[in-house]
């Protein structure tokens, strides 16, 4: 569609009552990012109250009409997805505006391939819109959905704001507080008592606090998000017509400065440090709600894991909604079932579980097929469930296993009968994703009450037990050993299909590493995709496989949301080493020697074997280990007076050889290398340019 064009959603598809809106972009540097927001507007083009403004710290509507699903890596880069249940939108809402904003002075003109896509609940794209004229804007309205009689229509807007989120918000009846600048300065100076609000409210500490409740702002306050320091924007005055709907919006302390941002809801999280145990010694084990040690067979593990997860999903609405919203499920009353018998020819079939969600008298149903302990999904079994779902009018089949789905590479292949009018969507969920979502809720974002938080903690304890079989991606596959041996003895030729299998396993591993790290930090961690638009995932993996055959290396980049740090991970199969590195730019306006000294002070507790390399224009500068450089910071300065452009910090670790997740396994070694590098290095150098990433 072109800018300004509009189209009826009903005319585009039969199942447009609930849609998934996706905003995407790519960045040549891999560090480009933006925050998505959604505003519900009345006939006057204003929000009704603070609950009509949705962003990363207020991600879901109580009625299920809006839910921000978060970022997802794709072959084009990152993609932010939003679930909109149009049947649940209150009748007084006339428009739904979908926007995004950048921070820290970043502009949308620095991003490539800006695009918006609207898909139905099955994931079938309905309409798309690309923005190719972005420049100095720091906020953008991508598009909007609006009512016309009894139907919803989509309009491609593409309107930008040079004044950022503050300017965009003001247009819709949100007033930016005048003391925002002073508040930001108090936070930037590191004042531990600066609460950043004049109304007596406190900032939620989240996982950093010692209590079990996060304190939020009053219900009468809407909050404009600021994940990192935002550009200074004068507070505009509200228009006369917005007087009745204007909501004061104080600025939020930056998430990257060590404080969790305020929330508009009071949520319960578990304390990061448990109370002193009452056990006499370490041999005493706490009683668990879901005992695991007695599990012996794969069948027992599958039955127990399915029942445990589905029961917690039904009892903890936040988790149930989080795990099903992306699959097209509406927000509503959820019930779950196990071992249900469904007719199929002469022999009934028993899917491992069934999820049913009821809303406004309508039912959404998904069949669940579970595998644990690394067992693969069987295509013929999944095909049977898809056929059963189609005949019975069910909406989805969800597969759940340790495997991690890849963009453009289905876990199992199924055939769809084109003669059937009813479509069934096939989705996959990894046990690693379940654990990630549980940890995000109980450690960082909070849930409705303490009982729900305790249930999620018990679920997490269960998933992390050795006997549960729910440990996420654990096996590099049968191609790993022959490919590794072929690289060592130089017999692996270009185009070997086994190399592609190893590249796919590597991508799954990196995505799982991001899930684990993100759950620990409470911030999204995503693989960086530098591929341009229209790049085919299979072609990209084929090129990576050729590079593996030629150079013997697997490479990836990942980024922690809210920072500009891109962590590079390289596994060298020839040397048996895993290399993790990050580039750190110097602060503007400081002398090179002062910067070098400050860097080494920040790395005082970093591993002594850390390699530090100076970067200069067009070449590499002096380098050395941290142990050698600590007494002589001047050794990092270019001898010819060349301009210092930054530093590259690198850790090298021995690589595991086996394909599994044992102590000597490749998967364990990569996970430990990233963990050691982030906590030992990246989290320490954040303040070099004024940003301090969370340390978990």
What topology emerges from the helices and strands here?
Blueprint: E1 6-8, H1 9-12, E2 18-26, E3 35-41, E4 53-54, E5 66-74, E6 77-85, E7 95-101, E8 112-120, E9 125-131, E10 139-148, E11 151-161, H2 164-171, E12 174-176, H3 180-188, E13 213-214, E14 247-249, E15 267-268, H4 298-315, H5 317-324, E16 333-338, E17 353-359, E18 362-370, H6 379-392, E19 396-401, E20 425-430, H7 431-445, H8 450-464, H9 480-488, H10 497-521, E21 525-527, H11 537-551, E22 553-560, E23 566-572, E24 577-584, H12 592-602, E25 611-616, E26 619-625, H13 626-629, E27 644-654, H14 666-682
Parallel strand pairs: 12-14, 18-19, 19-20
Antiparallel strand pairs: 1-11, 2-6, 2-8, 3-4, 3-7, 5-6, 7-10, 8-9, 10-11, 13-15, 16-17, 17-18, 21-22, 22-23, 23-24, 24-27, 25-26, 25-27
Helix pairs in contact: 4-5, 4-8, 5-7, 7-8, 7-10, 10-11
Walkthrough of the structure:
48% of the residues are buried. Helix 4 crosses helix 5 (317-324), helix 5 (317-324) packs across helix 7 (431-445) and helix 10 packs across helix 11 (537-551). The protein has 696 residues and is α+β, with helices and mostly antiparallel strands. 25% of the residues lie in helices and 25% in strands. The longest helix has 25 residues, at 497-521. The protein is globular.
